[in-house]
Every structure is written in C-alpha cells, then in structure tokens.
C-alpha cells in the first residue's frame, strides 16, 4: 500500500508494509533515491539510505524484532527516561511500545518541500510503569528531505487531568554506521563538560582537539552546540547532527569486552557503529498540564576530506 505523502503535487511515496516477523513498517522514499524505514514498534527509524542505496544507520545483525524488546540500532527513542537517570527501566518505555499512526497531527512548521513523512503517536497504556502514572501525548514526525536529510520532530504534551506536572528526560539515540570506529572522530564537543557513565556519572572536562576512540565510551556531554559532526575518515563521509531543544549529546560505543556481553549485538559489530544522540538529560523537562515540549534533530551525510575534515557547505543543510 502506498500514497502521496502530504497530498503534494509531486509523488513522494510513503509505503505501509510488513517488516521482520510481520511487524508493521513504513518506508519513506524521496524521488532522488533516498529512503528511510520506520517500525511502529518503538516508533523507530531502522534504516536511512542515500541516493546510492548505501546504509547510513547501524542495525545489529542480532537485533530482536519482537515487542516489547527494543530494536538494537537505528534511532531508538528514550522517553520518559534516558539511561538509568531515574527510577524507570533503562531508557524508559517509548522504545518498547508499539506506536500508532497519527492521522490528524497538529500543524508542523517544517519546510513545505518535505513531502515524504509519517506522523506517529504514543499515548499511555495499561502496560506503562505504575511508577510513571501520567497522561501524555507524544507525537513524532519523521521526514525525509529532498536532499536526503532525515528529520525527527517530537512533541510531548502533558494531558493530566489531576493538575499534576510531570518530569522527563529524552534522547534520540542515533546509531551511525561506520567503516572503522578507530578511524572516526567527532568535532563540536571539544573542551565541554560531560558526565562519565563509566565512572558513576562523574563530571569531567573533555581534553584535546577532537574526540577519537580507542576504548569503551559512555558519556553525556553538557551544553553542546546545535551542530555536531561525526567524521568517518575511511569512507570520507561526515554525518552532521543538528538539533534544537536538546542541549545535551550522548556518545556511546561498548568496545570489545562490553560488546561480547550484549546479547543482541555481534561481538565485532562495535567496530562499525557509534551512537551519538541528541538529548536532554542533565536538566529534566517539567511540563504542567496543557504544556508542550518540542525537540528536533536533523541528520545529513556529506562528503568530507580526510585531511581537513571540512564540511561541504553546499550540502550541509541548515536547521530550519
């Protein structure tokens, strides 16, 4: 089944189909050949390909496609809790829940040329933890731009009728596909403070000109810029993450020992992935009844030079 997304004049197709184990899946396609796949399980993007059909997101070969298990890879969403920063299960329940298609979304101030998109919604269910007994509406628009950029816009509203506010943390956990983790660096997080999850969340200041990888990393960078670059030197490709409403950035790679202990990750797959997430962790968000929070990210992949790592300014799209 397919239709013209957004009722546009040009055909930019959204296809509804079945994925692994018969789970509901949505495929977004742009006319130039870019594509993205979204599972209703977790409201999760699991694939993002460029016009050459090259995969840009990492998905574990051992990923489990069986609710309520979270899918390892792609872009899982942490809500209402990131990591173990709270009393709920790790990363909250949004990534373990089957979302519904939102057929009547509120207006989104997105660029009008983005016709390939899907709107999903998550509301409370009886399966949600009793330790987070709140009413909410979580809406997300996942859009694929004409230039291949992937945009996720989340809106979370407090719909409590008892007058109570609620507080949450949040993250888009982007698993980028890489050629070799030892040949990768991140630019944009230099000299910033971070919480080290490997050392009881100690607050540390980052040293050095750029961030490279030679061992396990699990950090939450604080007060980060709106643009972060992940340079894959081997493939001469740079991923650009732009974000709005998400002041923190999560960086994670399990390295060899930890990878062997993760049942839904291949022993050697840590070499080909890096999770860099747009997040709000240090200062949780509090919403009163009727209030809404919005957090947005845009991902693009552009050519980069091994020597300079300079972005191609013509292809690095601005966050609208």
* Helix content percent band: under 10%
| Number of DSSP E strands | 21
Spans where pLDDT lies below 50 across 5 or more residues:
1-10, 306-320
Radius of gyration: 19 Å
> What's the shape?
globular
Give the number of helices.
1
Largest sheet: 9 strands, antiparallel
Strand order of the largest sheet: 7-8-9-10-21-18-17-12-15
Strand share of the residues?
Answer: 35-45%
Distance between the termini: 31 Å
What's the overall average pLDDT, rounded?
88
Q: What class would the helix/strand composition place it in? A: mainly beta
Summarize the helix and strand pattern as letters: EEEEEEEEEEEEEEEEEEEHEE
Task: Please render the helix and strand layout as text.
Blueprint (H helix, E strand, L loop, with lengths): L1 E3 L8 E6 L5 E6 L5 E5 L4 E6 L27 E2 L21 E2 L14 E7 L13 E9 L5 E9 L7 E12 L6 E4 L5 E4 L5 E4 L5 E2 L4 E5 L5 E6 L4 E8 L3 E6 L1 H7 L11 E15 L4 E12 L17
Antiparallel strand pairs: 1-2, 2-3, 3-4, 4-5, 6-11, 7-8, 8-9, 9-10, 10-21, 11-20, 12-15, 12-17, 13-14, 13-16, 16-19, 17-18, 18-21, 19-20
Commentary on this structure:
The chain is mostly beta strands and 320 residues long. It has one helix at residues 255-261; strands spanning 2-4, 13-18, 24-29, 35-39, 44-49, 77-78, 100-101, 116-122, 136-144, 150-158, 166-177, 184-187, 193-196, 202-205, 211-212, 217-221, 227-232, 237-244, 248-253, 273-287, 292-303. The strands form three sheets. It has a nine-stranded antiparallel β-sheet with strand order 7-8-9-10-21-18-17-12-15, with no helix packed on it. A seven-stranded antiparallel β-sheet has the order 6-11-20-19-16-13-14, with no helix packed on it. The model is unreliable at 1-10 and 306-320 (pLDDT under 50).
């Amino acid at each position: 089944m397919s239709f013209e997304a957004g009722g546009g004049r040009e055909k930019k197709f959204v296809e509804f189909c079945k994925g692994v184990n018969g789970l509901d899946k949505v495929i977004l396609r742009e006319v130039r050949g870019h594509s993205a796949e979204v599972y209703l399980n977790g409201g999760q993007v699991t694939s993002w390909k460029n016009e050459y059909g090259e995969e840009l997101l990492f998905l574990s070969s051992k990923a489990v496609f069986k609710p309520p298990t979270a899918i390892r890879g792609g872009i899982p969403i942490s809500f209402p809790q990131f990591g173990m920063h709270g009393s709920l299960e790790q990363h909250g329940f949004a990534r373990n829940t089957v979302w519904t298609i939102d057929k009547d979304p509120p207006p989104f101030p997105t660029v009008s040329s983005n016709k390939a998109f899907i709107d999903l919604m998550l509301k409370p269910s009886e399966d949600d933890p009793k330790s987070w007994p709140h009413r909410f509406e979580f809406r997300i628009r996942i859009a694929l731009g004409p230039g291949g950029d992937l945009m996720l816009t989340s809106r979370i509203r407090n719909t409590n009728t008892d007058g109570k506010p609620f507080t949450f943390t949040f993250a888009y956990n982007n698993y980028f596909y890489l050629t070799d983790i030892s040949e990768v660096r991140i630019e944009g997080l230099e000299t910033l403070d971070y919480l080290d999850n490997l050392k009881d969340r100690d607050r540390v200041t980052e040293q050095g000109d750029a961030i490279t990888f030679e061992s396990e990393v699990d950090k939450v960078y604080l007060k980060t810029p709106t643009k972060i670059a992940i340079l894959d030197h081997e493939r001469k490709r740079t991923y650009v993450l732009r974000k709005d409403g998400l002041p923190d950035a999560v960086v994670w790679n399990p390295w060899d020992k930890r990878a062997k202990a993760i049942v839904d990750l291949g022993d050697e797959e840590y070499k080909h992935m890096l999770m860099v997430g747009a997040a709000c962790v240090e200062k949780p968000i509090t919403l009163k009844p009727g209030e809404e929070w919005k957090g947005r990210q845009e991902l693009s992949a552009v050519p980069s030079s091994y020597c300079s790592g300079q972005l191609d300014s013509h292809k690095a799209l601005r966050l609208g």
